[in-house]
Records
---
Amino acid sequence: MRVKLKAGPEPRKFIERIEELSGENVYACYQCGRCSAGCPMAAEMDYLPNQIIRLVQMGLEDEVLRSKTLFMCASCFTCQSRCPKGIDLARVMEAVRYVLDPKGRDAFGPNEISPELAQELPQQVLVAICRKFSK
Amino acid sequence: MKVHYYPGCTLKEKAVALDLSTREAMKLLDVELIEPEGWTCCGAEYPLTEEKIMGLAAPARVLRQVREEGGDVVITTCSFCYAVLKRVNYALQTDALKHKRINAYLKDDIKIDPLTKERTTNFEAYNGEVKVVHLLEYLRDRVGPGKIASRLKRPLRGLKVAPYYGCRLLRPQKELALDEPDNPHIFEEFLKAMGCEAVDYPFKQECCGSYLSVSLPEAAAEASYRVLRAARMNGAQAIAVSCPLCFYNMDKRQAKIREMFLDFPGLPVLFFTQILAWALGVDKGALGLDDHAVPVDKLFEDKRNAEVIL
């Protein structure tokens, strides 16, 4: 993969914002890949969990915000429990979702759930998915 | 013994079986369950960014209500509620800034004096005093294996059950501290106490797909399939869960899983409280067995025949 890195205050601002929101030190990651190895949703993702954190480290904001991975994280914390550096990657994912433009694409809201499906779903999942994927 | 019990939103409608069997079983163990007055939904997801403080207010309010009613312990059976309530407690105990911000929301709540009907707003700050306990923990630590063993009427001898923890009971371990995240055993101990044989299999703490079953149904079905297949391949006759969402993903969606994966012959899904209630002698009619998409009737017969189930 070929990426062009930008220098200057802009990428740094993004990294700092993610660290501030998530409360995690993204530079602690040394790319061992245990998060991606254990992730139950890894097969569906465009960027693997460890790649997401690498992109954040490099300040590649656009790449990260464009990734489908953000909406494939089930917040099951398997990565968190296995990270040798103690990073909670689910928090980093949530922080990135948080900085996405509120009118941005892909956010999953109540309008996307059909009335028939809503009838059948347990209440907790309706609350959970709106909490996670819509503003 | 009286103890506060927080059922959570799903148990009142879509997972009535879990609520019903919990109540029936606890009655037989001489535990009186008290619902905190005016409880609300816990929010289902613990907010993971530092700026989403609003999501912490509702669960903190529930816990404060338990304290106001004189309770020091609240039990939950739903894994989602358990995780949210316990994590909010942890935040209030360890994070001074969150404590300040949550209590800033809570301090203006109106309190009505039960005797004089006087309305005041002088709640004391909630500092995470109420202990949040999962029913499995409560059975093990407070009711105790001795008492449970002495009350068992119908131990499910020979029934092979796969315990399923999922994500919310175990992780993050630092905050929940229920069991070891990669080698848990509390569920196995419970099943053995019920007379069942606990099936060991590699996917017991894997995710079932959680809320992704709404936005990415195929991916979630595959995650659930991996769990169900592993349990089945290791000889399980049923899988036991504590979370209504795991139940939905594995039971209500099982027809869809079988359509997608033709090699999977099906596996009944039970709430752990149904096993408990049955073993304690609760009537079959009070277990909520009609609510299952995969029939479980045959598991609860006085003379069970393993051949019939499989």
---
Amino acid sequence: MKHRHIISLLMENEAGTLSRVAGLFSARGYNIESLSVAPTEDPTLSRMTIVTNGSDAVIEQINKQLNKLIDVVAVMDLSDGEHLERELMLVKVSAAVAASEAFKRAMAVFQGRFIDTSNSTCTVELTDTCVKLDEFLQAVGRDQILETVRTGASGIARGERILKL
Amino acid sequence: MGLTEELAEELSGAEIAVRCLQEEGVEYIFGYPGGAALHIYDALFRQDKVKHILVRHEQAAVHAADGYSRSSEKVGAVLVTSGPGITNAVTGIATAYMDSIPMVIISGQVPSTMIGEDAFQEVDAIGITRPCVKHNFLIKDVKDIAPTMKKAFYLARSGRPGPVLVDIPKDISFQKTTYNYADPIHIRSYNPPGEGDINQIRKAIQLLMTAKRPMMYSGGGVILSGASAELTELAHLLGFPITNTLMGLGAYPATDKQFVGMPGMHGTYEACMAMQHCDVLIAIGARFDDRVVGKVEHFNQVPRKIIHLDIDPSSIAKRVKVDVPVVGDLKLVLKQFLAELRSTQQKPDAAELAVWWKQVNDWRFKGGGLKYNNSTEIIKPQYVIEKLYEVTGGDAFVTSDVGQHQMWAAQYYKFTKPRRWLNSGGLGTMGFGLPAAMGAQFINPGATVACVTGEGSIQMNIQELSTCKQYHLPIKVVSLNNRYLGMVRQWQEIFHGNRYSESYMDALPDFVKLTESYGHIGMRIDKPSDVEPALREAFARKNDLVFMDFRTDPTENVYPMVPGGKGLSEVILDPKMPHPEVEDL
């Protein structure tokens, strides 16, 4: 039985750390649905959010193997408890699509923001869970979209559960 | 300027790297020079504490450092140049990684200003070694060399050991800075385990005490942790049957009556059956790999409780479900087991254990103690190993290459001490044996070192006979020459309808003349009656390398055998030998 898991890592903010993590996933045949990484308030640390899927045994191995990497400082499987996740998406559509009632309705429902327009195009920004963003794309219709770019999920645990050194 | 800074010396990066090797107590570094490493070679030349051993191929440098480490528990050290220097070393590094051997490899790199420009002899050493090292470092500042070297040695030897690479660009190797090796190391993300959780240990003991069919299964981790004495004590205290994996041979004396031999693909009948049918299995520094448990679904068919002791949490529950995991340094964990057993005075049920031993001994009887169909006409490979064991008094350092000869050496040489059996168990690297024997001979001067090999494997690093001559290494090469890549031939016989695709060895050199041309002694042995006299003569030559070319039966197969994709209890016994029927579970 495969489950989706969202795993957060704190790792040394050094060249090569990302490739150690990415290399681990490809070498051991684990899936990556998305991966996002940036430095934290402590510039020596980066925080990575990985969305993956696998059986319980595979997820256990992923957590252990990540912990084993020397540059990985801390690992938290956010799926073990209540957590929040957000993903940023930018979508470019034609001006005609942007003006359509259906598109405006979707923008209202999913709380999108117009961030750029040109004579012929329009770009919007949405921040939500991965599932909600998928729903937005479905609501708009794939053939109506010129370009999509997504950051992958960022995750954080709810309440007092904190991933920090 | 402070006092310490005034006293601190200004050294070049290369000099610092060599000073670090001295501080770490490195006696020998195995390597091969080249452009990007020349400053380091120059620094080596200008000191005499660290002796450099010039091999003939970088792969051999790594295997030699590996054999040095396996036979001594010290950290191996290697020095190679950039580009082909490091790519040649990769097979050796992967070999050490798979078997968790502590090692530091220094590689020269093109100048940092030229990295990424496809410079002459440039290769991404960090990228190419990443999947087969415990960790690696690219030096970007000369100030980082000393702390990085210190980290490298610490990482290599602590926790689950492994190879660590330090890549030093040429320009950084001649920049200067103050040298200071005194700073303690702290790696915030790395805390190797010590003792095990006492509650888990109590749970494990409870399980062991209620077992009806208990079994101990120990691997290379016991040797790496230096825990052979504790393991032996625990086994004697419990009275359970015990098996050692290919990597764990010697951790428990093979001559002891509780020892049931090696498990797995070419393990004994009794070890395979006892592993399969036990109801509580305690795994100690072993990792349930495919060559040990066979088809995992078949292994899981029998309900049994598993206790797993290991320093690496990722080894636990990787292939089989584990009921009681204990993470820790095995030497400490086994001491905890012993203390807990002694203080609580718990003992296994003697009557239940006797019933189980009756079953194990029945299997032992059926297995026939690895008897083979000996001959007076043609040399049987097993016979050579039996005689090697006798002639060396069971006390040699034995390295092997990979294939049938490796399995026969593991089966017929009864290792009674740890760190005596050196083989590439994980990666299965042909060409390991001779250079590993060199490393073992350097760190154990005066000891008997034998390399069991075949005519296929030995040719993968035969150039090292030249290194052996240069450094007067009196290794005894025991080559089981059957004119086939024997293990490949065996699988082709059994699984591929006798189609021996590319497994014959044609156009073989005259190994006697070849050895003589390197300045050593060569012997060719064709008759079974000459095997023992030849071995005695060779091993009596304490100061000479002797290459023994034994012409063995090309049709001999390794048995018992658990065929690939089969379960442990589907083990096949030697069809040429009688096997009495016994009652099975």
---
Amino acid sequence: MNTQISRVALAALGLLVALILATTYWQTWAVAGLEDRQDNAIQRVAEFTIKRGLIYASDRRTALAANERRRVKGKTFYFRRYPQGGLAAHTVGYSTQVRSRAGLERSLNDYLTGANENLSTVLRTTFEELRGVTVTGNNVVLTLNARGQRAAMRALGGRCGSVAVLEPRTGKVLVSASSPTYDPNLVERDYAAINRIRGACPTAAPLLNRTANGRFVPGSTFKVLTAAAALDSGRYSLYQTFNDPGFCIEYGRPVNNYDTSRPFGTVTFLQAMQYSINSVFCNIGKELGPLKVIEYARRFGFYSRPPLETPPEERAASGLSRRGELFLPKTPFEVDPGRLAFGQERLQVTPMQMAMVVAAVANRGVLMRPYVVDRVLTPSGSRIARTKPDALSTAVKPRTAAALATMMEAVVSSGTGTAAQIPGVRVAGKTGTAETGVGGRNMTSFIAFAPVDDPRLAIAVMLENQSGTGGTTAAPIAKSVMEALLGARSNQ
Amino acid sequence: MNAGGEAVSLRNRELANLLVVGMLTAVGFASVYIARSAEVSSASLSYAGIFIGLYLVAHLAARLTVPQADPYLLPMAGLLSAIGVTEIYRQEPADAFRQGIWVVVGVACFALVLLVLRRDYRRLEGYKYIFGLTALLLLVLPALPGIGETINGARLWVRVGPFQFQPGELAKISLIIFLAGYLREKREVLAQGRLKDFGPLLAIWGGAMLVLFQTNDLGSGLLYFGVFLAMLYVATARLAYVLAGGALFVAGAAGVHAIVPRVQERVSIWLDPWSDPDDSGYQLLQSLYSIGHGGFGGTGLGKGIFETTAGDPQIPFLKTDFIYSALAQELGLIGAAALLLVYMLFAVRGFRIALLAEDGFSKLLAVGLTFAFALQTFIILGGILRLIPLTGITLPLVSYGGSSIVANFVLLAGLMLVSHRANEMQGEGARP
């Protein structure tokens, strides 16, 4: 019997050894994977024992996310508090127990909890753990300009839409405003209140970051891209003339201009942009071919998510869409070239993407990688990381960019965008109005940069559910945000 | 006593080990007290004293009745129960008090069994059918309307007035005594492999299946049947029986799986807990996260995270089925591995007793008891660690639960009785 007993013993010990191995697996090998799980409630609580890093606007004074110390059953927790409420809620996001995390609170979690792998941080937090004191996370300073952000939220009012502002030379995101917004302090406390938020559009979706994740029809603002492709090809020039009969023929049928009552007759390319004449762009689109236009759109960043630091699922790529999915045409026959050229062909863009387009035009054709995190600081204030401006691509030649600037300046000085004029500042811009098919409701937009001779900001304003045009609804918003920002600059 | 010198040395060794365990217990309670001084009173420190007193009582009982028994089993059992009570205490001081009372009852039963059976436990063999019947009765008890109770979807409990216990724990021991007697008697016949001799065995298989079906719990069925197969193998030396038995069990389990939704759910959670992380997979996942959070060194006793920031518990059944995930978080891999090593050492000592025992009944009894102890540990921890589907049985001596504590102290007494006799028969006494 003893042989059998030994074998049974071996089997039993084998089972227990398996337990030791499995425990080792879960406590060493699998730890990182488990910690990253969104449903890990233990980790979420553990991170509330950490004094999370603060998140500041670019002035390093306006705290967008701070902590509130509370003791529960003998344990000290640090809960998040958002002193500015909904001001930059969509970028900053939230860190909660019940609804996990979103925005930068999610994507920068390692920095904010001191779990990033910089040697100094590792040493500091390990030392804090050994001493048994509260672990403190690193602070983050954003590129967001508090004053510009406030101006944008105020200008948007209750409307559904977004304002994105970039600094053309660096790619800094100066404003990322999405409306309607929500108070991130309510996410934990009263989530139902967020669901009750209404805006001036059928789907308020207050949690949606419209700036980087909203899908808008660009309308005529897309003409800037068509013009970029046309001018950069060398086949077209600013003062070349076209004939506008008030429509253009596509697939054997006329496609009308926005204003069908009066054809412009003979116009230059510059004037076609200035007055947003669809027929001219329609014909250019047919001549260039849709693939060329799409190729240029891609140079400006279309078809990839805006490369921000927020979580990728909170950013959407712009481009043609088919049945709700992004779609990249392989042959020219899949796209209506004329409608594409004036921005009506199933195009869906984010305001951030349109801001990138104007920023590249303003920056002599070079597209800078947009970024919202300027630097990361230790609790004592020394710098751990800083974002360096980085060129993503050269979208167009400098000459093309200069020509586009001339066209866009004409739009503001005496075209469809006069509402964006700022005394003493040269502004270049382009309006957009897209009919949604719902009676009299438009998606309107305005993209601009200023000052033209020394561009300091590039802006995109996009609105849903408007009865007016881009020139009457979006341009005034752009004007007040630009004034706030340029004023803030000159005050410094 | 003829081998008096050796005996004293064995018991003195036990006493020395117990003192070490007593110190560890004191350190455990002290660290919980320090970490949670805001929550718990300094009276907690007296717990360690009470525990040391209890161990001494058990030790004296052993010294009186089984002087030649293995000197490591009692200290290890003491250590495991102390670890359990410490962790339960850290979770809920009032429950630790109740558990402490159960340990007192357990130690009393331990002493009682030693006292009653000190002359010759082998006379139990004569009552094997009574034990078999008792086991059956105890297993059926929870199914009876009126007293049976379903907790967490498993029908394993019996409630009489304010008392609630799991008869399955005691059934386990009755079943092992029955099997040891029955297999000792029938082993030659069974080894010949004539078909008609397998009637009773098929009946046992049917019983295990019935238990499985009736309790809605794979764990108990697996435990009983696994113990049965191990003992059958030791008795007959026929591996084929184990394989055939295993195949039968798998077939039966598959059948149960097809019928019982709860078993299906358990299996699908096991295969992919992340398919439904907020509902059916929640418990297993949060338990894994708890273990993972412990990492290598653990958070330290009393400093683990088991509650939401609002103070609500995060892991259901933490003190009973999931006590290991609490321990693994607070003690880390170092502590969890040490705990598992204690289980291994306990099993090693148990199997060693089986090897040293002189007669078939004693060997089978020791193997049965030890294997049941080890397999039960594997079934619950394997479930928690996602090696096998999760089932609701207790971790021997550590989990919160009276019936489990008492049953395992009785199991310990059984092993010590066999050990005492084996060592005595060896004449010159065994070197440990």
---
Amino acid sequence: MTPPTALPEGAENISTGGFNRFAGPFYRLADEGEVRRFAFVVLDKHMNAAGSVHGGVLMTFADIAMSRATRLATGAQSVSTVAFSCDFMAAGHLGELIEIRVRIARRTRKFVFLAAEIASGGRSLMQASGVWRMG
Amino acid sequence: MSPPDASQPLDGYAEIRLVDPFEIHVGPALAKGEKAARAYALRARDEHCNMRGIVHGGMLMTLADMMLGQALWDATDSAACVTMNMQVQFLKSARAGDVIEVAPRIVRRTRSLVFMAGDFTVGGQTVMTVQSVWKLLGQE
């Protein structure tokens, strides 16, 4: 399958300031039921010297998407990442559209546990999980 | 306490050459010490922070990938390698102007895998701890 290279219609730019904008742009896509979806198109600045998307970009994308999913689910104004774990399964390439699907595994009064998969054109690039704190 | 003057050089540190476009984008990065026991540093800037003025988790994890990778290059004469896994705990916030330092450790090395760890500190206090597995390419 050829990886998609264009954002779907209705994609919302969420990289409005700070490191999010410096590293982005990242976009929110339409939800699929309980799954929150985000995407970005790989630019030159996102690359490493070996011709793959830099690991820091994928972790940043995951952190931003999972933080946003936590805020959407809880209504919290600000959230912070407590712990984050990820496995790099395959490389992303220049020009590809990379998508993340985020699910909430459990929510307590103060914490949210999330899991996510990053893929491009049906090819899994990363799995991630983590704990976010509200407030 | 006023933030450190970003124009002042840091004791013993010198800028290192970065080759990855994304690392050049977030850099510059600094290093000091001998190759086997080098410490790395980066002075956080506004563009590394979120809207609350706190260094973004994604930036800290980018730093983790950068600096553990640099330390692995030191240990392997710049062997081709990729990050397989990374586990991160965020203990404390870092802010613009803070100098974030790490002396990465190689915990175990096999023929094809390197197990690494690093405590990232600001002023001696840990802001993030990292454990990470790396694969040496071409070593099955």
